[in-house]
Amino acid sequence: MAEQTFIMIKPDGVQRGLIGEVISRFEKKGFYLKGLKLQNVEKSFAEQHYSDLSSKPFFAGLVEYIVSGPVVAMVWEGKSVVATGRKIIGATNPLASEPGTIRGDFAVDIGRNVIHGSDSVESARKEIALWFPEGIAEWRSSQHNWIY
Ligand code: RTP
Protein backbone atom coordinates (compact mmCIF):
# COMPACT_ATOMS: atom_id res chain seq x y z
CA MET A 1 0.00 0.00 0.00
CA ALA A 2 1.21 3.54 -0.74
CA GLU A 3 2.31 5.69 2.20
CA GLN A 4 -0.45 7.53 4.04
CA THR A 5 -0.48 10.37 6.56
CA PHE A 6 -3.04 11.87 8.90
CA ILE A 7 -3.60 15.62 8.51
CA MET A 8 -5.90 17.66 10.73
CA ILE A 9 -6.96 21.26 10.16
CA LYS A 10 -7.25 22.59 13.70
CA PRO A 11 -10.18 24.78 14.89
CA ASP A 12 -8.40 28.05 14.06
CA GLY A 13 -7.77 26.89 10.50
CA VAL A 14 -11.42 25.93 10.06
CA GLN A 15 -12.71 29.18 11.59
CA ARG A 16 -10.36 31.29 9.46
CA GLY A 17 -11.60 29.71 6.24
CA LEU A 18 -8.37 27.87 5.39
CA ILE A 19 -9.86 24.45 4.58
CA GLY A 20 -9.78 24.99 0.80
CA GLU A 21 -6.28 26.46 0.93
CA VAL A 22 -4.88 23.47 2.84
CA ILE A 23 -6.60 20.89 0.64
CA SER A 24 -5.47 22.73 -2.47
CA ARG A 25 -1.81 22.66 -1.43
CA PHE A 26 -1.84 18.90 -0.85
CA GLU A 27 -3.79 18.25 -4.07
CA LYS A 28 -1.54 20.41 -6.22
CA LYS A 29 1.57 18.70 -4.86
CA GLY A 30 0.18 15.43 -6.26
CA PHE A 31 -1.18 13.62 -3.21
CA TYR A 32 -4.47 11.72 -3.12
CA LEU A 33 -7.23 12.57 -0.67
CA LYS A 34 -8.39 9.25 0.83
CA GLY A 35 -10.40 10.32 3.90
CA LEU A 36 -12.13 13.57 4.91
CA LYS A 37 -14.51 14.63 7.66
CA LEU A 38 -15.47 17.72 9.64
CA GLN A 39 -16.14 16.97 13.28
CA ASN A 40 -16.08 18.15 16.87
CA VAL A 41 -13.98 15.95 19.14
CA GLU A 42 -14.48 15.13 22.82
CA LYS A 43 -11.86 16.08 25.40
CA SER A 44 -10.97 12.42 26.01
CA PHE A 45 -10.44 11.90 22.28
CA ALA A 46 -8.15 14.94 21.99
CA GLU A 47 -6.19 13.68 25.01
CA GLN A 48 -5.80 10.31 23.31
CA HIS A 49 -4.61 11.89 20.06
CA TYR A 50 -1.99 13.94 21.94
CA SER A 51 -1.21 11.30 24.62
CA ASP A 52 2.55 11.50 23.87
CA LEU A 53 2.47 15.13 25.08
CA SER A 54 0.50 14.53 28.30
CA SER A 55 3.42 15.53 30.54
CA LYS A 56 4.01 18.86 28.73
CA PRO A 57 3.04 22.10 30.46
CA PHE A 58 0.99 23.17 27.42
CA PHE A 59 -1.04 19.90 27.28
CA ALA A 60 -4.24 21.20 28.95
CA GLY A 61 -4.26 24.32 26.76
CA LEU A 62 -3.62 22.22 23.66
CA VAL A 63 -6.57 19.93 24.41
CA GLU A 64 -8.82 22.96 25.13
CA TYR A 65 -7.80 24.41 21.75
CA ILE A 66 -8.51 21.21 19.82
CA VAL A 67 -12.01 20.82 21.33
CA SER A 68 -12.88 24.51 20.84
CA GLY A 69 -14.53 23.97 17.44
CA PRO A 70 -14.78 21.59 14.54
CA VAL A 71 -11.62 20.16 12.99
CA VAL A 72 -11.10 18.63 9.55
CA ALA A 73 -9.59 15.15 9.74
CA MET A 74 -7.99 13.84 6.56
CA VAL A 75 -5.98 10.96 5.19
CA TRP A 76 -3.61 11.79 2.35
CA GLU A 77 -1.68 9.24 0.30
CA GLY A 78 1.38 9.30 -1.95
CA LYS A 79 5.12 8.95 -2.23
CA SER A 80 6.82 10.08 1.03
CA VAL A 81 3.63 11.86 2.05
CA VAL A 82 4.52 11.83 5.77
CA ALA A 83 7.81 13.75 5.45
CA THR A 84 6.64 15.87 2.52
CA GLY A 85 3.40 16.69 4.34
CA ARG A 86 5.47 17.98 7.28
CA LYS A 87 7.44 20.17 4.82
CA ILE A 88 4.24 21.57 3.33
CA ILE A 89 3.03 22.32 6.88
CA GLY A 90 6.27 23.93 8.12
CA ALA A 91 7.94 24.09 11.54
CA THR A 92 5.80 23.71 14.70
CA ASN A 93 6.41 27.31 15.78
CA PRO A 94 4.97 29.50 13.01
CA LEU A 95 7.57 32.18 13.75
CA ALA A 96 10.22 29.67 12.65
CA SER A 97 8.35 28.17 9.70
CA GLU A 98 9.45 29.27 6.26
CA PRO A 99 7.27 31.46 4.05
CA GLY A 100 5.67 29.14 1.50
CA THR A 101 4.69 26.64 4.17
CA ILE A 102 1.17 26.60 5.59
CA ARG A 103 2.24 27.73 9.06
CA GLY A 104 4.79 30.15 7.59
CA ASP A 105 2.09 31.79 5.48
CA PHE A 106 -0.89 31.71 7.84
CA ALA A 107 0.16 31.67 11.51
CA VAL A 108 2.18 33.50 14.14
CA ASP A 109 1.36 31.63 17.37
CA ILE A 110 2.58 28.12 18.32
CA GLY A 111 -0.66 27.63 20.23
CA ARG A 112 -2.72 28.44 17.10
CA ASN A 113 -0.73 26.83 14.32
CA VAL A 114 -3.60 25.85 12.00
CA ILE A 115 -2.73 22.26 11.16
CA HIS A 116 -1.37 18.93 12.39
CA GLY A 117 0.49 16.30 10.38
CA SER A 118 1.76 12.87 11.49
CA ASP A 119 5.48 12.91 12.32
CA SER A 120 6.26 9.33 11.19
CA VAL A 121 4.76 6.46 9.22
CA GLU A 122 4.11 4.66 12.52
CA SER A 123 2.31 7.67 14.07
CA ALA A 124 0.31 8.04 10.85
CA ARG A 125 -0.85 4.43 11.08
CA LYS A 126 -1.97 4.92 14.71
CA GLU A 127 -3.63 8.28 14.04
CA ILE A 128 -5.52 7.03 10.98
CA ALA A 129 -6.79 4.04 13.03
CA LEU A 130 -7.88 6.41 15.82
CA TRP A 131 -9.60 8.99 13.61
CA PHE A 132 -11.01 6.70 10.90
CA PRO A 133 -12.07 3.47 12.67
CA GLU A 134 -14.75 3.12 9.96
CA GLY A 135 -12.06 2.92 7.25
CA ILE A 136 -11.40 5.15 4.25
CA ALA A 137 -12.32 5.30 0.58
CA GLU A 138 -10.77 3.05 -2.04
CA TRP A 139 -9.84 4.66 -5.35
CA ARG A 140 -10.08 2.43 -8.41
CA SER A 141 -6.59 1.99 -9.83
CA SER A 142 -7.66 3.28 -13.27
CA GLN A 143 -8.45 6.64 -11.66
CA HIS A 144 -4.79 7.13 -10.74
CA ASN A 145 -3.54 7.12 -14.32
CA TRP A 146 -3.53 10.85 -15.01
CA ILE A 147 -1.99 12.05 -11.73
CA TYR A 148 1.43 11.19 -10.46
P1 RTP B 1 1.36 18.68 15.43
O1 RTP B 1 1.45 17.39 16.22
O2 RTP B 1 0.18 19.53 15.80
O3 RTP B 1 1.53 18.49 13.96
O4 RTP B 1 2.59 19.54 15.85
P2 RTP B 1 4.11 19.16 15.87
O5 RTP B 1 4.32 17.70 15.68
O6 RTP B 1 4.74 20.08 14.89
O7 RTP B 1 4.49 19.58 17.35
P3 RTP B 1 4.38 18.81 18.74
O8 RTP B 1 5.65 19.08 19.47
O9 RTP B 1 3.92 17.40 18.56
O10 RTP B 1 3.24 19.66 19.47
C1 RTP B 1 1.90 19.43 19.16
C2 RTP B 1 1.15 20.73 19.18
O11 RTP B 1 1.17 21.26 20.50
C3 RTP B 1 1.15 22.68 20.44
N1 RTP B 1 2.31 23.20 21.16
N2 RTP B 1 2.22 24.24 21.97
N3 RTP B 1 5.02 25.64 23.74
C4 RTP B 1 3.77 25.52 23.38
O12 RTP B 1 2.90 26.23 23.79
C5 RTP B 1 3.45 24.45 22.44
N4 RTP B 1 4.28 23.56 21.94
C6 RTP B 1 3.55 22.78 21.12
C7 RTP B 1 1.18 23.07 18.97
O13 RTP B 1 -0.16 23.30 18.54
C8 RTP B 1 1.76 21.83 18.31
O14 RTP B 1 1.38 21.76 16.98
Automatic annotation (TrEMBL):
It catalyses: a ribonucleoside 5'-diphosphate + ATP = a ribonucleoside 5'-triphosphate + ADP; a 2'-deoxyribonucleoside 5'-diphosphate + ATP = a 2'-deoxyribonucleoside 5'-triphosphate + ADP. The keyword Repeat does not apply. Its cofactor is Mg(2+). Its EC number is 2.7.4.6. It comes from the Eukaryota. Residues 2-138 form the Nucleoside diphosphate kinase-like domain. The keyword Transferase applies. Keywords: ATP-binding, Kinase, Nucleotide-binding, Transferase. InterPro entries: NDK-like_dom, NDK-like_dom_sf, Nucleoside_diP_kinase, Nucleoside_diP_kinase_AS. GO terms for molecular function: ATP binding; nucleoside diphosphate kinase activity. ATP binds at residues 10, 58, 86, 92, 103, 113. Signal peptide: none annotated. GO terms for biological process: CTP biosynthetic process; GTP biosynthetic process; UTP biosynthetic process. Coiled coil: none annotated. The active site is at residue 116. Major role in the synthesis of nucleoside triphosphates other than ATP. The ATP gamma phosphate is transferred to the NDP beta phosphate via a ping-pong mechanism, using a phosphorylated active-site intermediate. This NDK is microtubule-associated. Belongs to the NDK family. Homohexamer. This is Nucleoside diphosphate kinase. It comes from Triticum aestivum. The lineage of its organism: Eukaryota, Viridiplantae, Streptophyta, Embryophyta, Tracheophyta. The gene is LOC123052269.
